[in-house]
């Protein structure tokens, strides 16, 4: 599995899966969540409403992941995951790692060859870039060890700013 770290717009990545740093409602929001919903079109919101109506009436739990089609995005799937909100007192690092681990696991079940992650938990949810990058590193290393036959060939970390990109490159350097 190759690891790539780059600054860019995750809504434009031509991969099998893009990961959405969603909120628990799955009904859109700001940041990456809002950008993905806008780029995917209204069908993404409709698919998320269907998830809420059928299997997730209380929303998606922190650290969990669920997939929908990608609709207007150049990807095939969107995996939605909810990071812990440090500002709301959610400081359990294991939940942050779980966002990445569960997304990787779900992407593998979708036979994805390439996946793009944002900095889940950074920004509005208050986790520093280094903590997020370290959680991602732990998840990728754990996934590699437990899924040696995975078809997942490329994991990209698509970061919004050069500063966050630099932090991720520093932390994930040994994997690349």
TrEMBL record:
Residues 1-176 form the Macro domain. It holds the Pfam family Macro. It comes from the Bacteria. InterPro entries: Macro_dom (IPR002589), Macro_dom-like (IPR043472). PANTHER family: GANGLIOSIDE INDUCED DIFFERENTIATION ASSOCIATED PROTEIN 2-RELATED (PTHR11106), MACRO DOMAIN-CONTAINING PROTEIN (PTHR11106:SF27). This is O-acetyl-ADP-ribose deacetylase. It comes from Arthrobacter liuii.
